Amino acid sequence: MLNRLDDFPIHQTPEPIAHPATSDRNVYDRTWFNAYEKDGGYYFGVGMAVYPFRGILDGAFSVVAPGGRQYCFYGSRRAPAERTDMSVGPFRLEVLEPMRRTRVVLETNESGLSCDLVFSARTASLQEARQTLWSGTRRVMDATRFDQFGRWSGWVETPEGRIEVDAEVCLGTKDRSWGVRNVGEPETGGAPRKEIPSVFFLWTPLFWDDHISHAIFFDDAQGRPLVREGFTAPLYDSEADIPGVEDGRDHRMATARHRVDYHPGTRLARYAEVDLVDHDGTVRTISMEPILKFQMKGLGYTHPEWGQGMWKGELAIGHESFDPRQLDPLAHSHLHTQQVVRTRDNEGRTGIGVLEQLCIGPYAPAGFTQLLDGAKSREERAGP
């Protein structure tokens, strides 16, 4: 099965590009973006992915409007054979210039959401370390990801009115990933699991005046590190100033550490810190204070109906809205969040960025022992 990309010298196997190198049914290829005003006045997220062996292409666009309500558009279709076709009904992504500029368009539809936006990079592409996670003897995640930091221009129409998106105040991160991870309807059959499943994930892309910092964490149920990574990289004035796909100016840390303080009775961070530990032992401590919450289910993550990679038919679109502040924080589909955060480091620098978190199941450092129990208050931790 051929498509346009087969005309480029990019093949990694003897097969056409449309043929994944793995036979795992959960292979995927995903583009994702976030965006937020510097003062936390609004937030929007974008996601689109193809699942070759599931035969599905889906996408979502979701906005937290200035009043605090979150609006969501969802779309799903049978995956096209042509990999450069990144459209689902009224929603499409256009790569205007690879690793420089991307256009996001959502035409008028019944959700009341629409947009015409352009993401412009301000960093080179930054590849995260390969992320391989196991459940017993089976790989449940094996993925490569790269990030770019940039800014947005254009407009977003919501049921509450139009948001003019100004590149001077709207920042964001692009996330491209591909490989294998659990998506779609769960597999059935076989022996039931003995243990309670556990996932702990933090992801912290942050903007400073002249550079970015980023840290990525996966932990096991005891808090032992599965993935630890931190780096910094320079910010350029515009995409035209970026010297290449990779510029060689990113600085990789020896390791990174995290500390999270949760709202009592929830798994939502009310404050967090990250340590970037350099190879000479120098520690840069970054504090993060949340100012806006975005529910990742608005982009399909853990969504009970519009979950990623779930078959919805030849073409289906849907929508919903809710107030993120009013949802049950311990419901399974509400645990995955991004929060816009104000940041400060131990040298007095200030910035803005995002704290993404997902914690399901037991996690010893936080005192979680069940699938969905919440954090204890200081009084409860102190005991009688």
Automatic annotation (TrEMBL):
This is Carotenoid 1,2-hydratase.
